[in-house]
Amino acid sequence: MTFLTKDQIKETKDYKEAIVKVWGGQIRVRSMSVQDRIDFEARQVEDKKDMPMMISMIIGCCVDEEGSKFFSLEDNSWLLEKSTETLLKLFEACVKLNTLTQDNIESQAKNS
Length: 112
Known about the structure:
By secondary structure, this protein is of the alpha+beta class. It is 50% helix and 12% strand. It has one domain (15-111): rbstp2171. Strand 1 (17-22) and strand 2 (25-30) form a beta hairpin.
């Protein structure tokens, strides 16, 4: 086995992805980068009243076909009006891809 270079690491696509069928179509869910995770955790402290953890995670993990963010923070208000069942499908995929445990989720919920 050879040692990696920084350039090789930079070029590696190490995200995990899943396709979730919702709303008569499909949405790509991706594992979060470190920066995405920092932003997610900050929203749990800063926006805890206005943005539930489930919505915050969905916003942080859903991407379009090119890998760009699918939802933005401004989508929070109308996402809150969508079906719990549908959003739970997306949330569960986010949790699985980001290897969050029940303890992580409960800890985040306590902080929110």
